[in-house]
Task: structure prediction
Amino acid sequence: MTIVLASMNPHKQEELSALFHGHTLLIPQDLGVSYHHEEIGSTYLENSLGKARTLHKLLLDAGRSTYPIIADDSGLSIPALKGEPGVYSARFGEKELGRKPTYEEQHHLLLERMRSITDRKAYFICCMVLLIHPERWFVAQETLEGEIAFNPRGTGGFGYDPLLYLPWKGRTVAELSLEEKNQVSHRGLAARAIRSILENHLEKNPYEST
Result:
């Protein structure tokens, strides 16, 4: 089955393609579609569903509305910071810098906030939506628990991966291979749940995308 990912991020496409092996996972630019969705929701579900609905409309306008769409929203939650940056993880640091920060700048700002905090427990959250049409969709939400490292470590992955240290692995998420990451990550767990829905429900029950 061909699925379209509601993201322009080729790193996310690579990561999820490994989890949806046997299927073709495209991103909008593969179909010649320019995609953008402003993440203004107050929950991960609002953002992921909004991303999927925005892409569905763009594909409909381009005459390509027959594809199922996968969208996800994820973030890093730190209980000692009252759950921040949370759903605003992608925008963390914009107020301080007056512009969209780089990953490295976000890491620096967050570590400064954590400088005097001893409780470094944290977890990633991923909310993933499989959308058939705007009012027919399925959702899975998963977590990956760990601790905030004292310095960024590793070059793999993206986002806050260099900051989340996994004690049972002795490494940050960015120090894991893609295969290891997909086994334990919040996005990997959510993707496997969505894939199960896709293969055990939708492929056995043909649908029309409207």
Remarks:
- The longest strand covers residues 121-133.
- Residues 33 and 58 are 7 Å apart (CA to CA).
- The radius of gyration is 17 Å.
